[in-house]
Write a structure and sequence with these properties.
mainly alpha, extended, transmembrane helix, B(0,+)-type amino acid transporter 1, membrane, transmembrane
């Protein structure tokens, strides 16, 4: 299991997940480049750079699994995918729970914070 006693293992599994995110980001750059051509972009990266980064990130994600398969990589992947359990209903389908409104008010009162009045929302 992933535990705090082995710092080297924690670094390995963090790098595994981080390179998955980097690869996903580069895939999005390539997809957006071809599907949303008309969007204004402050700067444009040459297409070769994201493609090279996709290959590098795929290698850095797959190499540890192939070279030294451990069940902890599966745990890290499951932890990453568990975010979909919350994303799909609450963000994609915009489901609101009534208790969340009460919880938000409680946290705002406890932490003395609230959204700015100038921000529409």
């Amino acid at each position: 299991m992933i535990c705090a006693g082995n710092i080297g293992g924690l670094i390995d599994f963090f790098s595994f997940v981080a390179w998955m995110f980097y690869g996903g980001t580069m895939v999005t750059v390539v997809v957006m480049r071809f599907t949303e051509k008309d969007l204004p972009r402050p700067y444009k990266v040459p297409i070769v750079i994201p493609l090279v980064m996709i290959v590098i990130s795929a290698y850095l994600v797959l190499a540890p699994i192939i070279e030294n398969p451990q069940v902890e990589y599966f745990y890290a992947l499951l932890f990453l995918l568990s975010g979909l359990l919350f994303y799909i209903p609450f963000v994609h389908f915009d489901i609101r729970l009534t208790i969340m409104k009460k919880f938000t008010r409680l946290v705002q009162l406890l932490l003395n914070c609230a959204p700015s009045e100038s921000v529409p929302g």
